[in-house]
């Protein structure tokens, strides 16, 4: 099958949707399908061989963060040419409601179209205002996928229609093994306030909903009571601005890695005793959790609906009240003092994450492709 996949967000900046598209494309290629991905990206960006650039992205406030999207005559022309030359059996558009390539593809393409909805939000003024325009594009879609119940609810309430639920996938084998980063002991059975232990965080530093300030406030309490504790922070953003929020006597125990490679990200998960996801909301799934689960990291996460589902109601990872640094500190202290509990959470996480492996998820996505292709006999994706 010839499959075209449309990525709405720039390939230059890591994100959950981009990771989902990358892994889906590679899983489909591995089983013999021809896949091409079009994505916002600088023309000189290093892209995988199956991806092409639709032009540079610009930052746009979207869904509680700043997304880097492509929209305009240049992007529209490249999308149109890519579809015409691709001779696709099916076109798979991600986040078609975002003002980016997916919406452009809906406007210019006809034939078997599948869309995946990732975002979760209660209200969106932008979506409400643009609903009539969106409907003219979305009505072309013949197969709809939502990555979570939260994303499905957003679709039903804001855009209408329904979707089959297929979760985000994870290449579990990629994260299972990794050496700790230099200078880090990795997970041990150490316990107590004097033990050389580490908490970990991964996410964009400049995005408030990722909740890093909550973790930093908790570390102010934990760090003073635990002289052996360090905090490992990975992700793009202004590191000096983050460190300025930490008391001077604790700053040398907060280690900033910046934007890390895929290899170092895996090693980071294997470098910490507890991985913390203090997100405040706006998450429809939580790909960072499935990565940490695949690595066997004991997890402490905020009790938002998406995280609760992925962590099996707290059996595959501990939960704390969202946005509460005191509760985070208290729950983290309990985990740091209980090696057996951490080991049990690690084992439960490795088991629970198997349902999200791409070997399962890609097969379910292919079934949706086959359904829409069969529903339009002899049809292929064409340009309007």
Jot down its keywords.
14 helices, 2 domains, six-stranded parallel sheet, single chain, alpha/beta, 17 strands
Radius of gyration: 21 Å
Hey, roughly how much beta strand do the residues contain?
15-25%
Mean of the pLDDT scores?
90
Number of helices: 14
Helix content: 25-40%
Distance between the termini: 22 Å
Count of extended strands? 17
CATH fold type of the largest domain: Rossmann fold
CATH architecture label name of the largest domain: 3-Layer(aba) Sandwich
The CATH fourth-level homologous superfamily of the largest domain: Glycogen Phosphorylase B
- Number of structural domains: 2
Strand adjacency order, main sheet: 3-2-1-6-8-9-10
The CATH class of the largest domain turns out to be Alpha Beta
Structural class: alpha/beta
The dominant shape is elongated
The main pleated sheet reads as: 7 strands, parallel
Any low-confidence stretches, pLDDT <50, length ≥5? Answer: none
């Amino acid at each position: 099958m010839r499959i075209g996949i449309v990525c709405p967000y720039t390939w230059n900046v890591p994100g959950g949707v981009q990771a989902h598209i990358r892994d889906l494309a590679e899983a489909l290629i591995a089983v013999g399908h021809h896949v091409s991905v079009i994505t916002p990206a600088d023309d000189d960006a290093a892209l995988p061989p199956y991806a092409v650039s639709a032009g540079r992205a610009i930052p746009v406030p979207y869904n509680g963060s700043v997304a880097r999207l492509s929209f305009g005559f240049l992007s529209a022309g490249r999308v149109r040419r890519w579809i015409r030359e691709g001779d696709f059996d099916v076109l798979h558009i991600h986040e078609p409601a975002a003002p980016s390539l997916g919406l452009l593809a809906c406007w210019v393409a006809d034939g078997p179209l599948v869309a995946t909805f990732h975002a979760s939000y209660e209200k969106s003024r932008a979506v409400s205002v643009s609903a009539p325009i969106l409907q003219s594009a979305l009505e072309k879609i013949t197969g709809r996928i939502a990555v979570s119940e939260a994303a499905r609810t957003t679709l039903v309430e804001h855009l209408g229609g329904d979707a089959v639920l297929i979760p985000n996938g994870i290449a579990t084998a990629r994260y299972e093994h990794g050496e700790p980063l230099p200078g880090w002991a990795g997970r041990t059975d150490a316990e107590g306030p004097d033990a050389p232990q580490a908490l970990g965080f991964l996410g964009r530093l400049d995005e408030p909903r990722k909740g890093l300030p909550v973790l930093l406030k908790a570390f102010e309490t934990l760090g003073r009571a635990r002289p052996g504790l360090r905090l490992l922070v990975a992700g793009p953003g202004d590191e000096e601005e983050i460190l300025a929020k930490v008391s001077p006597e604790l700053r040398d125990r907060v280690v900033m890695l910046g934007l890390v490679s895929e290899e170092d990200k895996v090693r980071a998960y294997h470098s910490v005793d507890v991985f913390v996801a203090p997100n405040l909301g706006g998450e429809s799934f939580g790909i960072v959790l499935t990565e940490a689960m695949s690595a066997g990291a004991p997890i402490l996460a905020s009790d938002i609906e998406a995280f609760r589902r992925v962590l099996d109601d707290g059996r595959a990872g501990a939960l704390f009240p969202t946005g509460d640094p005191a509760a985070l500190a208290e729950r983290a202290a309990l985990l740091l003092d209980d090696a057996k509990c951490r080991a049990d959470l690690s084992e439960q996480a490795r088991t629970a994450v198997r349902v999200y492996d791409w070997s399962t998820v890609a097969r379910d996505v292919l079934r949706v492709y086959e359904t829409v292709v069969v529903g339009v006999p002899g049809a292929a994706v064409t340009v309007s």
